[in-house]
Amino acid sequence: MAGSTYGTAFKITTFGESHGVGLGVIIDGCPAGIDFDEEFIQGELARRKPGQSKIVTQRKEEDGVQVLSGVFEGKTTGTPIGMVIYNKDQRSRDYGHIFDKFRPSHADYTFHAKYGMRDYRGGGRSSARETAARVAAGAVAQLYLRTLGVDIKTYVSQVGSIAVGKTHEELDLSLIESNPVRCPDPETAALMEKEILSVRKDGDTIGGLVTCVIKGVPAGWGEPVFDKLHAELGKAILSINACKGFEYGSGFAGVTLRGSQHNDAFYTDENGTVKTRTNRSGGIQGGISNGENIYFRAAFKSVATIIIDQDSVNEAGEDVTVSGKGRHDPCVLPRAVAIVDNMAALVLADMSLRQRSARLS
Amino acid sequence: MAGSTYGTAFKITTFGESHGVGLGVIIDGCPAGIDFDEEFIQGELARRKPGQSKIVTQRKEEDGVQVLSGVFEGKTTGTPIGMVIYNKDQRSRDYGHIFDKFRPSHADYTFHAKYGMRDYRGGGRSSARETAARVAAGAVAQLYLRTLGVDIKTYVSQVGSIAVGKTHEELDLSLIESNPVRCPDPETAALMEKEILSVRKDGDTIGGLVTCVIKGVPAGWGEPVFDKLHAELGKAILSINACKGFEYGSGFAGVTLRGSQHNDAFYTDENGTVKTRTNRSGGIQGGISNGENIYFRAAFKSVATIIIDQDSVNEAGEDVTVSGKGRHDPCVLPRAVAIVDNMAALVLADMSLRQRSARLS
Amino acid sequence: MAGSTYGTAFKITTFGESHGVGLGVIIDGCPAGIDFDEEFIQGELARRKPGQSKIVTQRKEEDGVQVLSGVFEGKTTGTPIGMVIYNKDQRSRDYGHIFDKFRPSHADYTFHAKYGMRDYRGGGRSSARETAARVAAGAVAQLYLRTLGVDIKTYVSQVGSIAVGKTHEELDLSLIESNPVRCPDPETAALMEKEILSVRKDGDTIGGLVTCVIKGVPAGWGEPVFDKLHAELGKAILSINACKGFEYGSGFAGVTLRGSQHNDAFYTDENGTVKTRTNRSGGIQGGISNGENIYFRAAFKSVATIIIDQDSVNEAGEDVTVSGKGRHDPCVLPRAVAIVDNMAALVLADMSLRQRSARLS
Amino acid sequence: MAGSTYGTAFKITTFGESHGVGLGVIIDGCPAGIDFDEEFIQGELARRKPGQSKIVTQRKEEDGVQVLSGVFEGKTTGTPIGMVIYNKDQRSRDYGHIFDKFRPSHADYTFHAKYGMRDYRGGGRSSARETAARVAAGAVAQLYLRTLGVDIKTYVSQVGSIAVGKTHEELDLSLIESNPVRCPDPETAALMEKEILSVRKDGDTIGGLVTCVIKGVPAGWGEPVFDKLHAELGKAILSINACKGFEYGSGFAGVTLRGSQHNDAFYTDENGTVKTRTNRSGGIQGGISNGENIYFRAAFKSVATIIIDQDSVNEAGEDVTVSGKGRHDPCVLPRAVAIVDNMAALVLADMSLRQRSARLS
């Protein structure tokens, strides 16, 4: 029982391998009547694509998306939106030297164990290239969420040991796209960029953190008891390649606070809206949005593909050396930002539609 | 579109409110032929139930489970297993003083916003009492997993600022049940217990961390690309009340490691099994188990119910004071251990069955 | 991967065996705010229960439903509604004589083949007693549909070879409950009753047809392309024990009509509503309701349990004789009416909620 | 909540409109290791495509399928199989004259009511052209089922009033493809062909029946209680455009039989296999296959598109005349055969995989 579908009401199913013919996605459940801004979708893909700056992989992938269905006269029709991205820069020959080797901390061995076979070209289905399909779908989710006033902003908050020293409230999130790292703190961004270039020079890779801030979500989204809003966000973000951890609101650090310190007191603002004075809840209480800003952080490990030689085994169980080559990411964080934005959008679009059934209308 | 179902192949649906008639669960998809050890199930419920020691709430709930279906002559039949736990200690009168107040950092306000109404008795559906139903179901999942040699052990690794100084490999996990905190490091357990009693004396609450270690999972469990094993574990654990974060393997701390430091080298052991020399992957690569031990950590915030007076508002938006009373948990961690064990079991049972469809048999 | 769940937005999961402790259902996804009329639910169960007249089985089952959750202060809360019906009249001893025999045209053999074991008491999970849980859930669906003006009426239109000679438009559907057969044509009902009593006297059973007419469904319910409204109705009705066929609108007989004879011409009525002059479409076009009355027919075979001796085999493959005894239905049709009404209600409630996501609101 | 997905374990999602860029399907859950016979898939599409004989529409659609993913070195990989069929013969101009008219007994009005808009080109998503994607997916299901020895054969058993006089056991099913009607009774096929040509000459259309016979399904497939094998077959077949009815085994006609006449007696054959002497059950008992041949019949109404002028209304509610033109099917039955074969294959492949979880292995 496969797992290439995400969502219940706004439901996406992706397909495609790194070096196959192409990859794509079907969105089933997108409401009719949304202005379909194809340029925006292509722009989100551009934020994820390789080769966009000197601190990411220099592979050239155009990632041009072709819309096959579900749009008519510029609007969504309510029927499935099919989108495909053809692989242009396949270069299968790059991978012949590792076809029977299990690359360390990749999914080569586990795919082999699971299916009894695998597409060894660039990781096949396990490649992060799959996320291009998610980004295309998430961009459509964003088009829907915009009609509701929801805004999602992710930024790089740590690279290796270099962390942004400010909270997300203290940052100017409009600066995210002002540098190739996608960190809205320009000084820290410069340090991060330097670090990434240094790592790259060593043929090595490095991890980091992203922070995501979501504004404009009304109170009431999220479904008790398993499909809590933060549980779905957690699953969606953890399903992104290289993600090792997820926390929202006060997160891991918050466990040292006592209840009397951690609780967010309610008050009524001048418009009669119920608000909280603090937001350690991260905009979510009991798994349901409370109208405050939602925020979470996610950890991404260093990319497994390195240029440095590594010990491993092959399918026959023999000792082999895996030698890196090709054009790989020294740090996925700058590109992960686009993926996190759009995965969060998929979760929220789904929850928005699910909320429509909560009560007698 | 509601969210009280978890799992795809081993599927559970829970129902019930804190102070309603009862709560329970249907398991649909449990394989036929499993020896149904009702005593074990009741034992898992006992590990979760209130009143089991002086460091948890003193509420008395028997949590006796009644099996209604799906078991015949001591074995599971393959048809749905219905289980119900009647609420004995309802004491609805305890809650009259807060029926229209939104308790800080509870789900009162968000349920009200979502449904336009709510069962205000003890949090209703949002109460952690719901997890009793999950534990009953998870215990059945454990009975199934035992037949495959899978063993799950969760322990308390931090309370407030008091953390276990050893890794899970350095600990003797058979000591988990040797103290009421459920920490296998006796010295640290004593400090944690003292801290919890101190917090309780102040009418306050405190958070902490659990660590879960899963042994015996074969390579191949987990479904690309959204239903990765760790993504499902993350969702399941994050859906537990008060959980604020999830990380597996190297987690958040691992992001500072370079690829050359983080990658787990493969080798073939004396039995011809492919193994990794280190396990920063946490037993999962590309979302699929690799045969190594799986481990993760989860953060639980301090319980929202405190005895200390708090500012809040009521349904009319007026300022009110919420005064705590009753018998509440100063720290959920010791009881959370049983919930985490059993939620992990639900994820693994599901993934085990899903794996059966992966290839031509 | 089990199949005890029906519905996507208004989702039910049933459990329970004929002679186990009890059976029941969880409804997950019922909107908050519906007046919960428990008497109506009990009334629907009374229409399904055995022993209600001399033409159905004389088994005595009270079928009293206990509501465990999801209702507060007389209204649905939006959280799961758990309901249980305890088995009172178990008499397990009745079934000892057949515990290893495969009764002809029952599910004994197929359950054994599927699960490697079975609960042989009265058919266990395969017993039509399971439909009591569906009826309870369907009655809640009816409470929801009432708020939208939807009305469902099923009647017996044929018993053996005795068929009602009038169309559903020519009948007075308020007469359905005026006789024990539940046929709104009193003369035909009398003949049917006589036939059933004659069959019963012979220790035999007989089949028949029901017709269902649904009024008040607005245009727009039903989901292209697999979950068409009539496809979901078909699945739901075919899933009822003994059902062998389903047709809607012009059905099987309509295939002899040419397109020019079959098509339903549109016109606009005095209120500006688009209507059709004829209704061979059965109120559904392209799988979506068009605002006209929905109608369908379903075929139910004769009950497999007869008093007459039959040849069969046992689990060891040896020839045996199955001798009927006990109190069984000579004809399920009068009781099937209640099941069909409520299964149709489940389909429509689900489709109503699903429609809420179809477009930008 | 959309409905373009079918299946639980062998899960397909289709997309595409009649006159959009293209249509296609993702299969998620196809086991790894199946020999991927692309020629067979293309052959199944050829059996469905228009223009294949003089008794079907003369539209030219190549329906060449492009496989985008999920196949490597000639075998399925276990990851999603994406397939796309580009629309070549769009001719959108054909549809300008009806863009705001509701064609009688089409889905124009209901799509408009549901989504507030519609793609009016050739019916858009409601067009039977969507079934090409199902056929491609079903052909892959057939490749899987072949490895298990399952064989599916559908034929035309009635056109208008011209019916095959023999049972499926009396026919030589290898003759199905021997004539353009796809009726294995050559004399009747000739009469049917004559009838279809006559109807076509009148600018009219006609309906009919298909019969499907499935051999080689082992005992044990099908899931109690809602996802019974025949209920899923019913839903799948009823979801095909123009289908109005479904019956299996003894069907509608069987309701006149008494239990003593209808029951299928069990015996043990020379190989020790449990068999039934008759097969009124249609190979399914209690919703689970019993090892006998499965058979069902389905009714298809006359195609709604006729050349003859018809009264209707437009979006403004004004009276209009719909004048047929273009190249349409006088009778869908010959092409429906391929769709029914492949929808049945999808149901069976799904049930086969679901059965893998039924018991301890």
From TrEMBL, chains A, B, C, D:
It catalyses: 5-O-(1-carboxyvinyl)-3-phosphoshikimate = chorismate + phosphate. Pathway: Metabolic intermediate biosynthesis; chorismate biosynthesis; chorismate from D-erythrose 4-phosphate and phosphoenolpyruvate: step 7/7. Keywords: Amino-acid biosynthesis, Aromatic amino acid biosynthesis, FAD, Flavoprotein, FMN, Lyase, NADP. FMN binds at residues 125-127, 241-242, 286, 301-305, 327. NADP(+) binds at residues 48, 54. Signal peptide: none annotated. The keyword Nucleus does not apply. CDD domains: Chorismate_synthase. InterPro entries: Chorismate_synth, Chorismate_synth_AroC_sf, Chorismate_synthase_CS. Reduced FMN (FMNH(2)). It holds the Pfam family Chorismate_synt. Its cofactor is FMNH2. GO terms for molecular function: chorismate synthase activity. The keyword Amino-acid biosynthesis applies. Its EC number is 4.2.3.5. It comes from the Bacteria. Belongs to the chorismate synthase family. This reaction introduces a second double bond into the aromatic ring system. Homotetramer. HAMAP family: Chorismate_synth. This is Chorismate synthase.
